[in-house]
Structure formats: structure tokens, C-alpha cells
Amino acid sequence: MTGEALAQGQSTTRPILELFPEELPGEGYRKAQIAHWLYARGALDFAEMTDLPKALREALAREWRISEFALVEAYPSQDGSVKYLFTLLDGKKTEAVYMPYQNRKTVCLSSMVGCPAGCTFCATGALGFGRNLTAGEILAQLLAIAHHQGISPREIRNVVLMGMGEPLLNLGNVLKAVRLMLHPKALAMSPRRITLSTVGIPRGIYRLAEEDLGVRLALSLHAPDDETRRRIIPTAHRYPIAEILEAVRHYYAKTKRRVTFEYTLLKGVNDHPWQARLLAKLLRGISAHVNLIPFNPWEGARVAGTPKAGILAFAEELKRLGVPTSIRFSRGQDVGAACGQLALKAPPILTLTPTPEDGGR
Ligand code: SAH
Ligand code: SF4
Question: How close is the Cα of 126 to the center of ligand 2, in Å?
């Protein structure tokens, strides 16, 4: 489809996933029927909604669209996870990962195309900022994954916003998407099973605390000292660790949700024993859990990961100092499951949907 045709497509239909169930088109119980088709049955086409009158289905298809993607590509990994690359209606690309482990179906969703934060170890950061995703585009990732997996969207019980982008820099749209996930007539998810991962934007953390949605917060700390953090995370120049931790303490006081601290171990950068000790000291008095992430290498990266022995030693030191610690061994490495990698290099493995013509869905 040409850029022109896509632009026309966008102007003739409106994104139905932007609507809360009570705002859906139709009178009375029709709204509930449509919500059921979207969120329980996972319909991506109004024609599937067979208990609606045909005239209504046709009218809906003329005015509204369900999918937000021109193309969905899947990259299955040997470990069972599946990485999805989405081409949006304006031709830009974003991605998500499906992880069906231990009977817990989890999706990792993106909040942006690219990311403005520019962290040196992150492939998304290397892409730069494309644009914010709308609430509908965030939800549409989950629905497209459920559709491809042949499951109800409501079977996906865990969502992590750890794909492309910084959720707290697109907070309005992210909050709307989260509210739709929580809505009993939409995805009916538990807030404890939704995690927002942030590079550490204090005003965003305060706002999230005020919203009081009960979602979990993960903070990408990656260094216990400002000097090291600034070397790898450009936004650390604006927000010192002390300021971020103050916001995190406030989040905990308000929500009583234990905060996860993410820490990607980079060789010779943030993996020294003194940094483990400083991290333990920093987290004293905070209800924290440290998630050590082995670096997921990508082409062009100018940093290297800490070898396994070093990761284990770092974890041991933290545990010895009483810090609850786990190591998140990477999943889907063979298909580039570190955020941003598919968008950097990507011959498709499996193409799922042909470019749909507008109105024909
Ligand atoms: N922007 C948000 C969420 C997306 S990144 C954030 O930064 O938290 C999700 C997590 O993956 C972050 O902790 C991020 O630092 C980490 N990450 C990014 N690239 C990585 C890589 N190549 N290897 C390991 N972890 C990575
Ligand atoms: Fe953006 Fe997060 Fe990647 Fe940093 S780690 S560039 S904040 S997506």
C-alpha cells in the first residue's frame, strides 16, 4: 500500500480501540456485545460479529477500524517466545513479544516508535524517537498477538511495558491503554499484573502514584552512582538518582507496591563489586527487588555484557547484603528480543497479515 493510500485509510475510519466500552457505538446491549467481540473473542473484523445485524456490522466497518496495523510479522524463538514486528498505518514500525511460560501468558508491549532517551546499551535508543503510540495502538499489539496465537485476549494475564519507548514520556496514552486493560468490560486485568518500566522520569512517577491504578513499577536503574549512570543513560544528566529514588519512595508509600529495580550488567561499566555494595546501600529502607538482566547484544552496540560468572558474583554480593535479587536470563535472544532489535535489522520469518485495504476489515 502506498503512503498516500495509508493516509486516506487513516482519515476514513476511526480507531475503535480508543473507546471505553461504555463509549462504543450502538444502543444499549449492543455496546456490551461489541466489547465482548473485541476483548473476549478477539475479533479483528466486524464481519465476525455474527450476532449483530448485518447492516450494523457494515455501518461499523465503514466508520471504525479495529486493527492499527498494515502488517504484522512474527519471529518465533526456539524458547517458545514470539517476537512481533508491527507496521503501523503510517508505515512506522514498533514491536512486542509474547511469552507463554509456566502457564502465564505474558506480553511485552511498546509505548513508542523508537525512544528519545538514547540509552547507549539499548537498540531502541539507537533508533531515536519516531513517535508516541496511541492508546489504541498499544492495545492493538495485545489483540494482534492473541489473534495470531489463537487465544482470547483475556487469556493474556500479564503485561509489561518494556518494549520500545519510555512509557512515562507518553503517559496520557499509556494510562488510557492501562485503563482499558483494567476495565471489567474490556480486558478485565488485575493491576498487579501490569508493569510499567521506566528509565526514571520523576514527574511521571509522581503522576502515576496520583493515578493510583495499582500497577507495578520497574525502575531501570543500571548504576548506583550518577557518574556511571550518566555514561550509559543520557536522561541521568537531568534526573539524579536521589531525585528518582525520592519519587520511587513516594510511589511505594502511596501504592504499597514493591518496586523492581532493573540492572543490565555491562562489562567493566556497572559490574564492579563496589557497585553491588553501593547498590545495596542505596536500596536500604526501600521495599525493592533487583532484577539483574544479562545484556542482550545487538549489531552496532558499543558495550558488552558481563559474562555469566560475573553476573552470578554480582547477584551473590547483593544477596549477601540482604537485597532480594533475581537474574532474568534473556528470552528470545535468537530473534533479537532485546528491545528495538527487530526494527534495526529484519528479514521477516513469517508474514501474518497482508496489507488490509481500508474498510475491508
Ligand atoms: N524505556 C523503558 C522500558 C523499555 S526498556 C525503560 O528503559 O525501562 C526495558 C528494559 O530493558 C529496561 O530496563 C532497559 O534498560 C533494558 N534493556 C534495553 N536494552 C537492553 C539490552 N540490549 N540488553 C539488556 N537489557 C536491555
Ligand atoms: Fe528508551 Fe528504555 Fe531503551 Fe533507554 S532503555 S533508550 S529509556 S527504551
Answer: 9
Closest CA to 75 of 299, 334, 296: 334
Q: Is 166 in the pocket of ligand 2 (CB under 6 A)?
A: yes
If phi > 0 it is left, if psi is from -120 to 50 it is alpha, else beta; for residue 8 that is: alpha
> Between these two residues, 289 and 338, which has the higher pLDDT value?
289
Cα 86 to averaged position of ligand 1 atoms, centre (Å): 19
> Which among 72, 84, 44 is positioned nearest to 351, based on CA atoms?
72
Task: Collapse the DSSP code of 88 into the 3-class scheme (helix H, G, I; strand E, B; otherwise coil) and give the result.
Answer: strand
Q: Is the CB of 339 under 6 A from ligand 2?
A: yes
Burial (CB < 10 A; 0-12, 13-18, 19+), residue 140, is buried
Cα separation of 136 and 68, whole Å? 7
Percent of the chain exceeding pLDDT 90 equals 82
**H or E stretch including 351?**
strand 350-351
Contact 129, 115 (CB under 8 A): yes
What residues form DSSP beta bridges with 259? Answer: 288
pLDDT mean across residues, the chain = 90
pLDDT in tens, 248-291: 999 999 999 999 999 999 999 999 999 999 999 999 999 999 99
Task: State the closest ligand 2 atom to the C-alpha of 165, by its place in the atom list counted from 1.
Answer: 8
List the catalytic residues. Answer: 95, 339
Q: Looking at the predicted structure, is the pLDDT value of residue 107 above 80?
A: yes
DSSP assignment letter at 24: S
Q: What is the mean pLDDT of residues 169-175?
A: 98
Q: Please give the average per-residue pLDDT across 141-149, as a whole number.
A: 97
